[in-house]
Amino acid sequence: MAKERIEHEGRVIAVDKDYISVEIVNKSACAACHAKGVCGASDEAVKVVEVAQDITTLTEDYQVGETVNVVMSSAMGTQAIWLAYVVPLLVLMLSILVFSLCGAGEVLMGLGSLGAVALYYLGVFFYRKKISKIFIFSIEKQPK
Fold first, then answer.
1. How many separate domains does the chain show?
2. Phi then psi dihedrals of residue 70, to 5 deg
3. pLDDT (tens digit, 9 = 90+) per residue, 15-72?
C-alpha cells in the first residue's frame, strides 16, 4: 500500500495571525548512533516550515514549543523531487549534449553545463513565491 502523505515531527517556534512557523530537524539514518560524534557520515539539518492559517490550522490552537506533525501529500513530494533533482539533471545532460554538438572543448562544456544548471536554480529562486503556493503544508497535533 502506497503512503499517501509525508509526515515529519516538528516544534512550533512562532505563531502569528497568518502563519505558524514549525522547526523540523532532519536527521540522517545514523543520527541515533552512539558514535555519531566522531563519524563524518552523520548529519542533521534544521528547517523552518511556515504553515498558513486555514480552517484546519487555527493559530489559536497552537502554542510556541508544542510538538506537532507537519504533513504534506506524497504527490507534492514527487513534484519537489522533480524540481530539485530530475529537471536539473536533464538541463545538465541536455547542455552537455548541445555543447558537445557545437564542438566546444571539455572545459567550456563543463563550465557551460554547470552555468546552465546554476541558471535553472536561479530561476527557481526567483519564482520561489509562485512555487511555494504549490507546496502546501498542514500541521496536526500529536496524539497524547
1. 1
2. -95, 130
3. 888 788 888 877 655 555 655 555 555 566 788 888 877 766 665 678 888 888 888 8
Query: Among all chains, which residue has been given the C-alpha cell 512555487?
Result: 131
* C-alpha cell belonging to residue 34: 552512539
State the residue for C-alpha cell 555543447: 99
Cα dist from 129 to 59, 66, 68, 76, 135, whole Å: 22, 27, 25, 16, 10
Burial of 29 (0-12, 13-18, 19+ CB in 10 A): exposed
**What is the pTM assigned to this prediction?**
0.66
- DSSP annotation of 37: T
Range of the domain at 126: 5-141
Residue 11 contacts residue 65 (beta carbons within 8 Å): yes
Interval 92-135: pLDDT, tens: 999 999 999 999 899 999 999 999 999 999 999 999 889 888 87
| DSSP secondary structure, 87-131, as one string | HHHHHHHHHHHHHHHTT--HHHHHHHHHHHHHHHHHHHHHTHHHH
